[in-house]
Amino acid sequence: MSDLRDWTIATASDAMEKGEVSSVELTDAFIAAMEAGRTLNAFITETPELARERAAASDERRKNGDARGPMDGIPIGMKDLFCTEGVKTTAASHILDNFVPTYESTVSGNLRDAGAVMLGKTNLDEFAMGSANITSYFGSVKNPWTPEGANANLVPGGSSGGSVAAVSGGLAIAATGTDTGGSIRQPASFTGLVGMKPTYGRCSRWGTVAFASSLDQAGPLTRTVEDAAIMLQAMASHDPKDSTSLPMVLPDCRAACTRDAKGLRVGIPKEYTLDGMPEEIQKLWNQGAQWFKEMGAEIVEVSLPHTKYALPTYYIVAPAEASSNLARYDGVRYGFRKDGASLDEMYELTRGEGFGAEVQRRVLIGTYVLSAGYYDAYYVKAQQVRTLIAEDFKKIFADVDVLLTPTAPSAAFAEGDKMDDPIAMYLNDVFTVPASLAGLPAISVPGGVDKDGLPLGLQLITGVCQEETLFRAASALEMAAGFEARP
């Protein structure tokens, strides 16, 4: 069997259909890789028995000529934010470290029904709060990439760090992620993968541990744009159990990957040029624009004037919603509990010990901005600015088809860097947050490497429910970039 890092959903599916490999053989190979790659700390819970059971069922369907789903027999990692029936779901937090759901999230259930084989639950920043995967109760995740000529441990990005480490490190063919302010796209950029956030509401949030309900959205992490289209098709659905779920059928995104970029109007937002931005990031961004121009697209400079307010707006809205969502973890109903002399003391001890430092920080910020006297000054004002940001995008997409920006302001950085400066950490999301606030679909495509041989991503953003255009542009960009580097 060839190098696992080169397997894609498309090639593995073809190989299984031709009888060149069975799902059980493929799954066993990835189980062995998962066990050999534990130094990455990509998985919190491994489920080899369940994986073999689902792989055998896939092979049986193939043998009998039964109907098969788009992910049939494909070994994947499941971010440990999706509730999985009978399998521990922790959100990488001490407060949920022994929680076993009695139900299945809609996204993981859709993938199961599409034939996907779950290898295990991947690590993440606690409650998805972070951009480096260093806040997990179960330890930091290591990036499979290292700088040329050095042995430094790099962060994989966050919060979906375990998912990208699993795919980039050859421990799974693909994995699920969740994106609140960039937690699919930024780690994809750090690890040379494709990371896609669909329009808010495309993927149901039911059964997904909540961080910020008006922002959270599930999406695929894969090796190719085509794979992302295949996986999204399996994940997305209208769900009556989620009041924010879109009652719309996802278009054929895989077919869109076969179209070229000729005739597309590609916007370059001038506000995404930051003071002090590394020259390599600017150079790659310029190169991306040049690639599109050479493919017959029209390059248009555009303005999104409220972009500069996106990050502070996000860090008011997201913690406020987190404060509300995390109030349910009180030690009374489920999860970790620390007894005290009184009910109040029990709450204090449970939440003080059960939540890590970053989660506590965001809960406190959120509680502050929602408190009497500050609600109007902060939260209401942030919601008003969020509306202005969304209006900026709406106006722009009347004139252009897609926006091209960098995905992250740097390549992956070393463990320990920025850890003592929360603001520096929050700046990792500066390019990804605006699309999240507006609920827009966006994708990160690997575009090249920096001077140390580390991957850099380019981000594409389209209008609401314009995933077809997004995949068309992303596939063209992927072909032009020809990214072939490996960890």
Walk me through this protein's architecture.
There is one protein chain. The chain has 16 helices and 11 strands. The protein has a domain at 4-258: Alpha-Beta Complex (Amidase signature (AS) enzymes), CATH 3.90.1300. It has 487 residues and is α/β, with parallel strands linked by helices. Helix content is 38%, strand content 13%. It starts with 8 loop residues before the first helix and ends in a 6-residue tail after the last helix.
CATH architecture of the domain at 4-258: Alpha-Beta Complex
Poorly predicted parts: none
Count of DSSP H/I helices: 16
What is the overall shape? globular
Distance between the termini: 19 Å
The share of residues in extended strands comes to 5-15%
Could you state the order of secondary-structure elements as H and E? HHEHEHEHEHEEHHEHEHHHHEHHEEH
What is the tally of beta strands? 11
Arithmetic mean of pLDDT: 95
Question: Reading side by side through the largest sheet, how are the strands ordered?
Answer: 1-3-2-4-6-5-10-11-9-7-8
Write the layout of secondary structure elements.
Layout: H1 9-17, H2 23-36, E1 43-46, H3 48-64, E2 75-79, H4 106-113, E3 117-122, H5 161-168, E4 174-179, H6 185-191, E5 194-197, E6 217-222, H7 225-235, H8 253-256, E7 265-269, H9 279-294, E8 298-302, H10 310-325, H11 343-354, H12 357-370, H13 375-396, E9 402-406, H14 422-426, H15 433-438, E10 442-449, E11 455-461, H16 467-481
Parallel strand pairs: 2-3, 2-4, 7-8, 7-9
Antiparallel strand pairs: 1-3, 4-6, 5-6, 5-10, 9-11, 10-11
